[in-house]
User: Which sequence fits this backbone?
């Protein structure tokens, strides 16, 4: 029996991924800031303590939407390209597609993360400076 595969279009992947990425990053940002400051070489208090826990949020938002969108877009496209493989190989299709999606997303996520952490640890005052 042939499976019917419902593949989201590119716009759906971009919008869903972007919205999900921004929602998660915004909700968890204060915890991430506290973690970053606890790990900072200068120490928690010198890095800002609990003050300004949303410092650098703009960089996280700017990077989270494209990163998450790129993940979902790559994941879905890779799955659809490999959909002709037999049923017993489908778990490998999902694993490979997720890996490809993570690689693509990291192209955006890593530079964004560096900028975000510099702002969280108060190493720079502005997004442009970081």
Assistant:
């Amino acid at each position: 029996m042939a499976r019917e595969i419902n593949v989201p279009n590119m716009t759906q992947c971009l919008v869903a991924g972007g919205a999900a990425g921004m929602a998660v990053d915004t909700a968890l940002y204060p915890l991430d800031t506290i973690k970053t400051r606890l790990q900072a070489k200068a120490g928690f208090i010198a890095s800002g303590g609990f003050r300004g826990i949303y410092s650098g949020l703009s960089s996280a938002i700017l990077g989270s939407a494209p990163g998450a969108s790129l993940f979902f877009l790559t994941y879905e496209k890779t799955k659809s390209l490999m959909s002709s493989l037999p049923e017993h190989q489908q778990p490998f299709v999902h694993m490979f597609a997720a890996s490809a999606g993570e690689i693509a997303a990291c192209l955006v996520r890593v530079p964004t993360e560096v900028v975000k952490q510099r702002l969280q640890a108060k190493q720079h005052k502005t997004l442009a400076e970081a």
Notes: The chain has a mean pLDDT of 87. Residues 90-120 form the longest helix (31 residues). The CA atoms of residues 86 and 93 lie 10 Å apart. The chain has three helices and no strands.
